[in-house]
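User: structure tokens for this one?
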Amino acid sequence: MLEWVVHIGFVGKSLLDLDLINRYGVQVIVIKENMPDRLNMIPTAQFVIKDSDIPILLGPNKALDKLCGEES
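Assistant:
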């Protein structure tokens, strides 16, 4: 599991558009929203990522490393 700082290229896109499970092998299980301040448990594919959101990802370490490595 990993708290992920959203890459700017992912802001404004839905989880469906990002397709993280098929592209990276990871799933978004929770999104910490700062505006408004709440936890979104098991977000739907239509959830649109904001720059203030902190997704919690679940997946194999290798897949999480791949996703984080592509942001640098």
